[in-house]
Amino acid sequence: MIENYNYILLIGGVAFLLGAIFPIISKRVPISLPMLQVGFGMIVGYFWLTLSFLNPLDNGLLIEKVTEIVVLVSLVGAGIKIDTELAWDLWRPTLRLLLVTMPICIFAMAVLGYYTFGLTIGAAILLGAVLAPTDPVLASSIQVGPPNSGGEDTPRFTLTSEAGLNDGLAFPFVYLAINIAEAYNDGQRITGDLLWSWFTYEVLWKILAGVVVGILVGKLLAKVVFSKPSNETNISQGYTVIALTLLSYGAAEYVHSYGFIAVFIAAFAFRRSEHEHSYHQKLHDFAEQSEGLLMSVILVAFGMLIGQWLHSDIELTWSVYLVSLAFLFFIRPIGGVIGLTGLNMHHTEKYAISALGIRGIGTLYYLSYALNKDLFSEADATKLWIVCIIVILISIFIHGLSAPSLLNMTPDKSRR
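The structure assignment produced for this chain is given below.
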């Protein structure tokens, strides 16, 4: 690909230009920035025939590391911009989505993957696990605004907090799929001991340790940054965002816990320290711009891959489209409504939250992470990539078009 270096720089320049002028474009055309950048990438991939095929099976490690960085920056941004305090009544919808809706989505997609695509049990669970979490990157357009910018309505807060937490909470199910695949490769069966070990270590220990690490890092860093009583601080917001991200993620991974959970919790804990301070706005602006730049690169590359598919021999059956549509239009919305049943919320709020489960870059990270363990067959890996890419593509365009209308349907009940 090095021989196309200058052309790649040109494409990157156009991608960033689209991000810069998008506010002007969006006033004339009702589309989202991800739709625009993926569409541009598809055109480039379709007509640039000399570019080597961007096969995800051959570039799994690169996909894993690049998407990991983007998700981490997005998680920091999500944690910093939440104004809502940590109160049981305000966070109940989020907990319902995490504890009820996400398992429903994982189970339903695992069943469809097993019976529709003939996936092994491990691969079927992996399909459900990687598609279950709402993406914190592509969902940024439907999340709450910058820190201290005003009231937060229930749908935007719930989608923001869900996206910030469920990326880490999907990891136990990813590891369940990995453990099952490893057991089958070794000629072993799924036993009670395997499931108990998974539950105590991958679920209990890693989640709790990730939360503790996040709280400690967030509070300690806040103590350093806000050590002076003044409303101003000379500490660079860029250094702070990067330090907050890497310290929490690195420390969590060092103690064998979930770094994604630690990063979001650290950002939220930092935010709750001197939560009225203007410094949080600066942190948010840096994180948001960094996330947007990184996201642009991935979305254009994602579009280029799909454009190249149109010239390849990859077979896309109707079952792929039907399962993808069923997940986005039925499984997630129904699972969301079930999870939110009984809460004191307007029915339009429940529907908007349930329908706007955007899938995106987080799915690419989880899938590449699991497949890089070399425990799944090439046939299963190919099917997983095809289904996940189609789900993400449909989600980008469907949710990009419907999100404004769905959010406008909800009553204007903002709160702090």
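Interim note for the steering committee: The longest strand covers residues 152-153. The mean pLDDT is 87.
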